[in-house]
């Protein structure tokens, strides 16, 4: 007769099953013979700096990524020799040269090159910050932004990332994914509560996304951050495919949901339509 699995062992196994794989595990799982593991590790090391304004140690980066310390050390040495990283004792920080990697995209993509004047116009008209983002690896990636002097606790700039499921920008783009892609996204994404208002039920999220697809816009009512509301619309290319999303964010104490729909939505829709004319 086999022994019953101790409760603590079962709980540990379930927790291990629910644990998201580390970046290193995702890299090691790649079986394509043309895949360069060393390059993937180097890029992961660069990305490990993105969520902290403080210098990073080899141990910090290894813990964040799961990449062995010896491999992290080699990556940092290479990046330092190429001028992308600086070091003071055991503390490493990115150098300005790393901006050239992102600038190559921003300066050569019609979407980002064309968007800034429209974002500036939207921001001036509504006196609120406006942004454009794309969907990247299941997250909202900000590629252009026009900010006002109003201060929000969410610090957003070009290159910032946020969860797609609880942002107006993300919901616009998720709503227009092919059904199989949306199901893959929902299957691998843990819907965490960012505030007490965040929708974390997959069935309810599907219903919301269906409404967004039907209505042509998405509203976020304090789901990402208490006190913050936003509204977003899709940006389509010549083929009608949704390439990105535009949004405007405002303090909930000043702007109601009705105001978002009545005053902000027409301005956003006009901006998205004018921008779409310039896109391939």
Give descriptors for this structure.
six-stranded antiparallel sheet, about 45% helix, 11 helices, globular, Beta-Lactamase, two-stranded antiparallel ribbon, about 280 residues, Arc Repressor Mutant, subunit A, alpha+beta
Written description of the protein model:
This protein is of the alpha+beta class and 280 residues long. It folds into two domains: 20-99, Orthogonal Bundle (Arc Repressor Mutant, subunit A), CATH 1.10.10; 109-277, Beta-Lactamase (2-Layer Sandwich). Helices cover 46% and strands 18% of the residues. The protein is built from eleven helices and eight strands. It has helices at residues 7-18, 23-28, 37-47, 58-65, 69-82, 99-106, 110-126, 168-175, 179-188, 202-215, 257-277, and strands spanning 85-88, 91-94, 129-136, 139-146, 161-163, 218-221, 228-236, 242-251. Strands 5-4-3-8-7-6 form a six-stranded antiparallel beta sheet, with helices on both faces. The protein has a two-stranded antiparallel ribbon with strand order 1-2. Helix 4 crosses helix 5 (69-82). The longest helix has 21 residues, at 257-277. The radius of gyration is 21 Å and the shape is globular. It starts with 6 loop residues before the first helix and ends with a helix.
Strand count: 8
Net shape: globular
How much is the average pLDDT? 87
Q: Quaternary status of these chains?
A: single chain
The order of strands across the largest sheet is 5-4-3-8-7-6
Rg from alpha-carbon coordinates:
21 Å
What fraction, in percent, of the residue positions are helical? Answer: 40-55%
Which sheet architecture does the biggest sheet show? Answer: 6 strands, antiparallel
Tally of contiguous helical segments: 11
Instruction: Tell me the span between the first and last alpha carbons.
Output: 68 Å
